[in-house]
């Protein structure tokens, strides 16, 4: 098994778990789809899949684990979880249930008002900010893709960390 194959396997598993989580949120409480409190759970799932991809590759490879292979397995898993999960969320919001767009804007307004009041903004400043939020269009597929590319680049860091930790475990267990 190659590092890419291992990354694909666990990336697809992680993406499926994230999609199931999103569907459950949608069924039971759609407001939670846009709530930041769910992000740590998604991050834990993603990191676990990265570790599993590297572990699976290491287990199925007779050679000592090299950083390059560990990094590739972790990064492929991260990328698939991120891309597939994000595009499913985009499809859910923009095609499956377009009422979620209004819910997303409403939550953005509530969050903005809370932060602005906390920061001591005047009512006029808050009203201007709310007008701007209302004018904003729903993110296009291109804007969504640009965001995903940003997170993929950001994913280089956790992939490198997972690869280093797994490499160190392999190196220390060989002695």
Structure, explained:
The protein is mainly α. The chain is built from seven helices and no strands. It is elongated. The model has no long low-confidence stretch (mean pLDDT 84).
State the separation between the terminal residues, measured CA to CA: 25 Å
Helix residue percentage: over 70%
Let me know the average pLDDT: 84
Largest sheet features: none
Query: What fraction strand?
Result: under 5%
Along the chain, the helix and strand elements come as: HHHHHHH
- Rg result: 20 Å
- Annotation, overall tally of beta strands: 0
Low-confidence stretches: none
| Alpha plus pi helix count | 7
The general outline is elongated
Structural class given helices, strands, pairing?
mainly alpha
Secondary-structure map:
Elements: H1 3-28, H2 39-60, H3 67-96, H4 99-118, H5 123-135, H6 141-154, H7 156-173
Features:
175 residues, 0% strand, 7 helices, single chain, 82% helix, mainly alpha
């Amino acid at each position: 098994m190659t590092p890419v194959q291992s990354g694909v396997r666990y990336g697809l598993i992680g993406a499926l778990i994230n999609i199931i989580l999103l569907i459950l949120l949608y069924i039971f409480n759609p407001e939670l789809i846009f709530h930041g409190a769910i992000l740590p759970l998604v991050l834990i799932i993603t990191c676990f899949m990265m570790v599993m991809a590297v572990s699976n590759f290491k287990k199925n490879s007779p050679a000592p684990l090299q950083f390059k292979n560990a990094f590739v397995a972790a990064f492929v898993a991260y990328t698939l979880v991120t891309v597939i999960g994000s595009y499913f969320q985009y499809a859910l919001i923009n095609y499956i249930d377009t009422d979620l767009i209004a819910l997303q804007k409403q939550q953005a307004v509530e969050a903005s008002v809370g932060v602005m009041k906390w920061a001591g903004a005047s009512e006029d400043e808050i009203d201007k900010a709310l007008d701007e939020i209302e004018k904003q269009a729903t993110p296009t597929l291109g804007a969504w893709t640009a965001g995903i590319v940003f997170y993929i680049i950001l994913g280089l860091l956790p992939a490198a960390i997972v690869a280093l930790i797994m490499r160190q475990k392999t190196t220390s267990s060989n002695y």
